[in-house]
TrEMBL record, chains A, B:
<dbReference type="InterPro" id="IPR006439">
    <property type="entry name" value="HAD-SF_hydro_IA"/>
</dbReference>
<dbReference type="Pfam" id="PF00702">
    <property type="entry name" value="Hydrolase"/>
</dbReference>
<protein>
    <submittedName>
        <fullName>Haloacid dehalogenase type II</fullName>
    </submittedName>
</protein>
<dbReference type="InterPro" id="IPR023214">
    <property type="entry name" value="HAD_sf"/>
</dbReference>
<dbReference type="InterPro" id="IPR006328">
    <property type="entry name" value="2-HAD"/>
</dbReference>
<dbReference type="InterPro" id="IPR051540">
    <property type="entry name" value="S-2-haloacid_dehalogenase"/>
</dbReference>
<dbReference type="InterPro" id="IPR036412">
    <property type="entry name" value="HAD-like_sf"/>
</dbReference>
<keyword id="KW-0378">Hydrolase</keyword>
């Protein structure tokens, strides 16, 4: 095993708390009421369906940033919230400032000493570069769906990263908090590591609480994973 | 200006001394004679012509790693040197372990505090990731010709990086030790910074000793550039 690629939203960053906090700060700044928690959860519910439109060829390639904005505009309309274009852009930009889970920086630094570490994310490149700078993530490379014009779980994304690394899939591990993502990687011959993020979707989360297959590694967090992989 | 992208071979790393040193170490290890300096200089002379075959469509897309190996095999034959396949691979891998110029790590760290910093290199991705790990280069992103299936100075490489960064060319600066590279970037509207590397090609170097146009910034090295750009 030479390289570990990481899912980012949920696995590396706590997007939900980060968005709710930013909605709250904006609410106070603008002196308006924004149902931050509901907006965050509903916005994320648009995530998979919006990418599926691209995956099924209903619309041409569209970066996540642009899918996010379309979903946001719909959502604000449903809630009867009126914001000017600049403020909508600003809210869309919340996704560029996401806090890492507490174990991430130390875990990645340790894993980087032994393995190539990279993202493997559906986020677009500029968003991911901003997240990495904001959260101080020491990636060796930022692989994202945009480079391959396919969204996960399309095989092109996983195999594209392996091809660019010039490694066979069995020498590349995907680390993710989502069983479906690991399933796609395993089907292509990659190694798999599951890290639970039991509050990614808030206190009521019901999926991905546990490993659903015997993944190659299962650990409580990235620090534990680094200890498991590096003796 | 939001981002600075850097040429790597010559601008960031001293490929010539690094290769010569590695040839010398191999010579001692194997107990054979290798004309390391001549091999290094002649190998690099194949660089532009080999990429031109791709750029002119004479051969399909071929990564630098593979062009390097073809040139090396020819060169060894010319010199009447016989090495086994594993040793040829090992020599080809010299390009993955290149030392940075002494100002690079400090200069990049300083520039990274203010700007997105990325490579913009003809090296293939896995080579560049290895160089970054070896030389401890804190890139936010590794952009390389391979992502765009075009070699510099084809416009696709420069514009591809700007597009992925979601920045107009005038908000992206190319930093390079080579006037031709900066000329290509300027023609596309990018900002330009020249750093002389007067011994890149050894003591007899005759080109790129000075800035040949009024580039947006000219500085002796990356530390000086960071002081120029960040007051």
């Amino acid at each position: 095993m030479k390289a570990i690629v990481f899912d980012v939203f949920g696995t590396i960053v706590d997007w939900r708390s980060s968005l709710i906090n930013q909605f709250r700060a904006l609410e106070q700044e603008l002196g308006i009421e924004l149902p931050g928690e509901a907006l965050t959860d509903q916005w994320r519910q648009h995530y998979a369906p919006s990418m599926d439109r691209v995956r099924k060829g209903e619309i041409p390639w569209t970066g996540l940033e642009d899918l996010h904005r379309e979903s946001l505009v719909k959502l604000l309309k449903q809630h009867g919230i009126t914001l000017d274009e600049a403020t909508i852009d600003r809210v869309n930009h919340f996704w560029h400032q996401l806090d890492p889970w507490p174990d991430v920086q130390r875990g990645l630094q340790q894993l980087k000493e032994r393995y190539i570490i990279a993202t493997l994310t559906n986020g677009n490149l500029s968003l991911m570069v901003d997240v990495a700078r904001y959260a101080k993530l020491p990636w060796d490379m930022v692989f994202c769906a945009e480079l391959f014009q396919h969204y996960k779980p399309d095989p092109e994304v996983y195999l594209g990263a392996c091809r660019l690394l010039r490694l066979p899939p069995e020498e590349v591990m995907l680390c993710a908090a989502h069983n479906y993502d690991l399933g796609a990687a395993r089907a292509l011959g990659m190694k798999t590591a599951f890290i639970p993020r039991r509050t990614e979707y808030g206190p009521q989360q019901r999926k991905d609480l546990e490993a659903e297959q015997a993944w190659d590694a299962v650990a409580e967090d990235l620090v534990a994973l680094s200890e498991r992989l590096i003796e």
